Amino acid sequence: MTPAAAAPDPDIARRVLREQVAALYANTWSSTLAGTLLAWAICAVFYWQLRDPMALLWLALNSLQLLRYPLSAGYHRDPLAAGRSSFWARRHCRELLIYSSIWGLAPWFFMPAGNLPMTALMVLLILGLASGGVPAVAPRWASVLSFVVPMMLGLISALLWHADAVHLFLAASITIYLGATLYFARQQHRLLAMALTMRFEKEALAEQLARQMTATQRLSEEKTRFLAAASHDLRQPLHAIALFGAVLEKDVQGRPEHSHAQRLLRAVHALGTSLDTMLDVSRLDAGVIVPEMRAVPLNPIFQALNQMFAARAEEKGLQLRLRASPLWVFTDAQLLQRLLANLLENAVKYTIQGGVLVVARSRGDMVWIDVRDTGIGIAPAQVERIFDEFYQIDNPGRDRAQGLGIGLAIVRRLSTLLSHAVQIVSSPGRGSRFRVSLPMAAPQTPTQVTGAVLAPQATPLPRRVLLIDDETDVGDAMAALLGPLGVLLQVVPDEVLAAAAFVRAAHDAAPFDALICDYRLGGGADGLEVGQRMLERFDPALPLLLVTGETAPERLRRVRDSGVPVLFKPVAAHTLLAGLAALRRTD
């Protein structure tokens, strides 16, 4: 299909024309120089052989045409040339028409009638000039016609004028040659135009794709910001509810209402778990989780997983077996346990009868951990999608009891983070097998095992704590929780009142033992910066704890880079107490 038949976009047509015109004017200087030298050479030969003054007259006419060269060369000095392509295309055609017409006059001016060698030389010169110049003017068909037709018609008409057999034969042959030249020039022009059209169509598609990718990225960023803001706004009241619920549950112990308080806490815990799952995705995407790779025995991990899922499997009437293994692997124990826990949770959730088996086997220098189930299985078309966020098989109604559909998305991220490949083999109605491949490690002696987690100690809590949080409910809930434990909590909403509290504490000789800051304060203030400024101004050694409901990846990275301990809302009562106790231990 030709460019004309393809009906290209008007913008693409303009860009094609601009490139064609630029190609025509790119060789203006070289073609002018070549044409001038050729004109002087042919005139010198013919004048030397024939002493015909008409050759000199034609040379003068050709030289006068060269005075128009600045008109053509002006294209390169025109700052708006790219936007005036049609104007410069017409000017180029006009200049070629004048140039070619002057060459068409040459056979009339000084081609001898009875001198066949000189006639043949004239024919060869004009044919060679026409054929040699076609590639330079092929980008524009109008330029091809303006360049080739006048000089060839001038030659043919001059031959016909002589009217003898030889000249008539030459005229006929040149006419055929003209047709062939125009045919091949037309094909060359079409190829060049098509190549330019395809080039700009591809560029337009690439630009359109880039715009779409930019728009998609912007929408994704807006979605991330929206989810982060929504998550933060949900976590704030939920954090207060969790703390008030803990206080209420303690106050009603031994009374009939205690069971209701426990149900409330379980509901709060379930909602907090869902929010924490989304937070895990944000933390993994933000790169704030850095694995601590070391030699790890598999048995303790399997035992912990058995404790986590044994009761749930028993409730469903399933057999859960985690075979003991003497193998050691090179991994991060906590992250591997989280990865396997998500696979186990998925297996138990989608298994109606039968059971779930977890087994580890060595294969060369690798260890395969297989999680097998006799569940509903996965259709081949869904295998790749199960690792997408919020995708769940057979849950179009988004039943809350089946979770959020993020577990396997976290598995994929943890697999990438740990460089532990995860493979899946599944048959609908027959179950699935997830295989985690990870490097084997040599068994370690107890003295070689590093990074062991010590059992929590009964550590006293800080006695005087300053909380910077603009949420009144959060401050009241924390005061209600910590007050009975002997912690004097003072709550202020902003940096100004926090500074005043430090001044009063110093004046009363009752310094604070710890500082807790919410990350996002009123008026858009940055709680991390506020806390760090308070420490710098009043007590650089004071322990600082950051409490936040933020899930935005860039803010999570900033928190990680600060090195400040952080708890994510909603914070369970025992987690908050453990965080405060840790501050006291580092005091």
In short:
With 587 residues, the chain is of the alpha/beta class.
Labels describing this entry:
disordered N terminus, Rossmann fold, 12% strand, 60% helix, Heat Shock Protein 90, five-stranded parallel sheet, seven-stranded mixed sheet, 587 residues, 12 strands, alpha/beta, 3 domains
Describe this structure in words.
- The protein contains 18 helices and 12 strands.
- By secondary structure, it is of the alpha/beta class.
- It folds into 3 domains: 3-211, no CATH class; 294-441, Histidine kinase-like ATPase, C-terminal domain (Heat Shock Protein 90), CATH 3.30.565; 464-585, Response regulator (Rossmann fold, 3-Layer(aba) Sandwich).
- The strands form 2 sheets. Strands 1, 2, 3, 4, 5, 6 and 7 form a 7-stranded mixed beta sheet that branches.
- α17 links the parallel β11 and β12 (566-568).
- α4 packs antiparallel against α6 and α15 runs parallel beside α16 (527-538).
- Mean pLDDT is 79; it is low at 1-6, 395-405 and 447-457.
Number of strand elements: 12
Bin the strand percentage.
5-15%
What is the number of helical segments per DSSP (H or I, 4+ residues)? 18
Tell me, briefly, the overall form.
elongated
Distance between the termini: 80 Å
Number of domains: 3
Radius of gyration: 43 Å
- Based on the structure, what is the oligomeric state of the protein chains? single chain
Helix content: 55-70%
